[in-house]
Amino acid sequence: MDVKELSGLSIDELTEKEKQLRHELFNFRFQLGIGRLENPMQVRATKRNIARLKTVRRQLELLQTQADQPVAK
Fold first, then answer.
1. What is the pTM of this model?
2. Domains contained in the chain, number
3. Residue spans of the chain under pLDDT 50
4. What is the CATH number of the domain that holds 37?
5. Degrees (nearest 5) of the Cα angle 25, 27, 28?
6. CB distance 54 to 18 below 8 Å
7. CA pair distance 59, 7, nearest whole angstrom
8. Taking the CA atoms of the chain, what radius of gyration do you get in angstroms?
9. pLDDT at residue number 71
10. Domain extent for 47
């Protein structure tokens, strides 16, 4: 997952994508616990994707709040 591709999404889309990734992470952890996960690096990659997503979402939120505030003189 690329930051450029995430920055093109809206805040609602990012929130929905985060829910999907968290569900995926849950499944990976479950599979890891029972020994069925073929590639344990998927857990790490999913965590990093969630962190990227949260960072982009926060940046968009900050940009929106700055745009809403009037300029002080």
1. 0.88
2. 1
3. none
4. 1.10.287
5. 65
6. yes
7. 9
8. 16
9. 65
10. 3-68
